[in-house]
Amino acid sequence: MREQQLLRRALNINFSNLKTLDLAFLALFIVFTSVATAIAVPGPYGSYFNLGEVAIYLVALLCGPITGALAGAVGSSLTDVFLGYSIWAPFTFIIKGVEGYIVGRLGRPLSFKRSLLAIVVGGVWMIAGYGITAGILYSWPAVIPEILIDIAQVSLGAFIALPLAFKVNRALQEKEN
Predict the structure, then answer these.
(1) CATH code of domain 2-176
(2) What is the pLDDT of residues 133-165, one digit of tens each?
(3) DSSP letter assigned to residue 72
(4) What does the DSSP assignment read for 98-126?
């Protein structure tokens, strides 16, 4: 029963009355996103393919827009710094934060259609944001490879996070009954 309560609390952080345990859960979601983003393959023009979308989508769908935004913004931008892509970090903070917020806002309550729509809208935001950023930082020819990498990230993120979110949600509902 205690683990059930902890899991419920982790998925429903109350930002108007944060407790130490809430901050610990938020830190775990940020680290989860950072580690997933660090699983990366370098690409052209200072970009890299990573699994960060899996974490952002999963956290946002299960925990909501604010937790999704914080995990996406802080976890992903910290990894940019750690991996030597510091020039991208301020852009990542905004792009991934808004992406997490969009997915968390549009994807709840959890249903397949809502979640898929949320990931598509959040993914389009992310692809556009990084495309524009690549054009500004490097040159407009850098936009095409960036967009292709980002489409692959969004697709893989959706492919992994959608079924996982529903499995976790179903497991929670079964434990309640």
Answers:
(1) 1.10.1760.20
(2) 999 999 999 999 999 999 999 999 999 999 999
(3) I
(4) HHHHHHHHHS-S--HHHHHHHHHHHHHHH
Sequence-ordered list of residues with C-beta below 8 angstroms from that of 76, at least 6 positions apart, any chain: 33, 34, 37, 52, 56, 92, 93, 96
Which among 145, 149, 142, 143 is positioned nearest to 123, based on CA atoms? 149
Distances in Å between the Cα of 176 and the Cα atoms of 58, 60, 134, 154, 168 are: 21, 22, 47, 32, 13
Q: Give 63's Cβ-side CA count (13 Å radius).
A: 28
Q: Please tell me the distance from the alpha carbon of residue 114 to that of residue 136, in angstroms, as a whole number.
A: 33
The pTM score is 0.94
With a CB cutoff of 8 Å and minimum separation 6, the contacts of 167 are none
The residues that bridge with 42 in the sheet, in sequence order, are 48
d(CA 51, CA 104): 18
Domain parsing of the chain, residue ranges: 2-176
Assigned token pair, 89: 């970090």
- Alpha-carbon distance of 4 to 58, in angstroms, equals 19
